[in-house]
C-alpha cells in the first residue's frame, strides 16, 4: 500500500501505467477516490477525478454541514455543489450526510438539487447507500402517514360508534378541510348528505 506501506493492498489505480495500490481504509488518508457505482473504479491521489466547477470559496465560507470554515480553494477535502456553486462542504461531512440520507433523500444541502449533485458526488468518490434515510428506520415516522379515522363530534350518533365510516350517506366521515386532524360523521354535525367538505370548530 503506497499510503501505509503494509502488504495486502488489493485496490490499484485504474489509470493506465499507474501501479499504485492501496487498502480501502487508507484511501481517504492517501487522497484516493473510489467510485461506488458502475465499474467501481479507484484512483490514486495523482489520477483522481477533480471537480470541473469554476468556483472558489470566499475567505469566511463555512461548511453547510458542520459550519466550520472550509479551505480557500477546491481540494480533495473541500467540495462544492455543481448545481448552485454556493454550497461548500468538507468531504467527510458530505460523506456522513450521504450515509444518513441514503440514495432516495441525498441532495445538495443548499439548493436541494438531486440528480446533478448526486452524480457529481458519486464520481468524486462519495459512497451513497442504496436505501432510504436512516431517520426513518424502525418506523419512527409511521404515525405521520396515518389518516385520522374517527368522529370527534361532541355526541356521536352513529350506531357503529366513532370508528365506523361509510363511503356515502349519513355515516360518511368527513375530515376537516383545513387541518384534517378532526373528523365527523355527516349526521353527527347535522350536515346534508350532499355536503362534501367540513371545517372543525378549531379551524
TrEMBL record:
PROSITE patterns: EPHD (PS51805), ZF_PHD_1 (PS01359), ZF_RING_2 (PS50089)
Entry keyword set: Metal-binding, Zinc, Zinc-finger
Entries under InterPro entries matching the protein: EPHD (IPR034732), PHD-type_Zinc_Finger (IPR051188), PHD_PHF7/G2E3-like (IPR059102), Zinc_finger_PHD-type_CS (IPR019786), Znf_FYVE_PHD (IPR011011), Znf_PHD (IPR001965), Znf_RING (IPR001841), Znf_RING/FYVE/PHD (IPR013083)
Domain of life: Eukaryota
PHD-type domain location: 1-48
A single GO molecular function term of this UniProt record: zinc ion binding
Gene Ontology terms: cellular component: nucleus
Residues of the RING-type domain: 63-112
Protein name as catalogued: PHF7 protein
Source organism of the structure: Fregata magnificens
Gene (name only): Phf7_0
